[in-house]
Amino acid sequence: MLEKESSPLLSVIIPVYKVEQYFEQCLESVIHQTYQRLDIIVIINSTEDHCIDIAREYEKCDPRVKIIVEERKGVSYARNTALNIAKGDIITFVDADDWLDKDIYTKMIDLLLIQDVEMVACMYSKEFSDGSHIIKESILNGRYNRIETLKESMRHTGYQAMIWNKIFLREVIFKNGLPHLFDTTLTNGEDSLWCQKVISNINYAYLDNAARYHYRIRSDGANFSGVISYDRIGEIRSYFKSNEFLEKIDSELVFYNLGRIFDKSCEMYINAYIQKKRDRFDELKSFLKLSRRSFLKSKEYPLKMKLYYFFMEILINLHFSSKLIDLLRRVTLNIYLKNKCVNGTR
């Protein structure tokens, strides 16, 4: 554990792939942090745009910036490469199209040291291109043990298992000098699997319900529609992989995880039906069958969500028009966004 009086080195890992429109804002928000003791590792995954040029300009004037070029190897390879050279006492990640509050690391490192924990997570704001945003909120704020933190990582409205809204003490990532690496066989959900595996190594975490990270919702990105695309089925497979170590910690964690599996699987199932992509229906149906009971019993999901999925499944099984299913989904989504969206900047 780090000394409270120390000023630990923070390694900031930024994988970059074709985001030149947003990358400079991301780098600016990292470099101009109030916490200055940074080890900034930029992994360029494609030289087809100007991201490499932007990174090199910053590298010239800031010795904290290090650039590695790994052409088209994927985000997991990029993060693994960075972990293998990271020098920080603390490790964090940033997506190259997002940005940070200027004092995010000052606040989070203070909490890590003062609260004597191995991980700190903050909440975040979903940022839309029209200037509106949705601030993700949680009622949890404070110091929590491993099991409580793992449960929170699986909650629909919680801190979840993203890696970019968290800082990790080096010792929970590294064992015998080697880092726990991202699973390069997964195309989706590799960050969630990695995050939960690392959380399983901690004793305590601090969950800070202030929204300090800005997560960009891009009109050209997979996150724009507000629904979970059927082609992210690998994400569900990664959740099942989590059960392998969750079962060893506490069987109740598997119950939580199965609720999350049903939530994601049902949304993918609906989306696959709308887009008439039936090639993965059998696998998605098997996921729903395995996880339905846990989802229905879980108190983590509101009754209206359970009813929504229940009726959508009935309509699909009765072979209602995909256009009607899509209309119902869009109406539901618009109602949700209307209730949650806060216009203007924070």
Summarize the structure.
With 346 residues, the chain is of the alpha/beta class. It has helices at 20-31, 51-61, 75-85, 104-114, 146-153, 170-173, 190-199, 233-249, 251-274, 281-297, 303-317, 322-340, and strands at 10-16, 38-44, 65-69, 90-93, 99-100, 119-127, 133-135, 142-145, 166-169, 174-175, 178-179, 204-216. The strands form two sheets. Strands 1, 2, 3, 4, 5, 6, 7, 8, 9 and 12 form a ten-stranded mixed sheet that branches. A two-stranded antiparallel sheet has the order 10-11.
Notes on the protein architecture:
The protein is α/β, with parallel strands linked by helices and 346 residues long. 46% of the residues lie in helices and 18% in strands. The protein has twelve helices and twelve strands. Strands 1, 2, 3, 4, 5, 6, 7, 8, 9 and 12 form a ten-stranded mixed β-sheet that branches. The chain has a two-stranded antiparallel ribbon with strand order 10-11. A hairpin with a 2-residue loop joins strand 10 and strand 11. Helix 7 packs parallel to helix 8. It is globular. The C terminus is likely disordered.
Features:
single chain; 346 residues; alpha/beta; 10-stranded mixed sheet; two-stranded antiparallel ribbon; 12 strands; disordered C terminus
Give a topology summary:
Blueprint: E1 10-16, H1 20-31, E2 38-44, H2 51-61, E3 65-69, H3 75-85, E4 90-93, E5 99-100, H4 104-114, E6 119-127, E7 133-135, E8 142-145, H5 146-153, E9 166-169, H6 170-173, E10 174-175, E11 178-179, H7 190-199, E12 204-216, H8 233-249, H9 251-274, H10 281-297, H11 303-317, H12 322-340
Parallel strand pairs: 1-2, 1-4, 2-3, 6-12
Antiparallel strand pairs: 4-9, 5-12, 6-7, 6-9, 8-12, 10-11
Helix pairs in contact: 1-2, 7-8, 8-9, 9-10, 9-11, 9-12
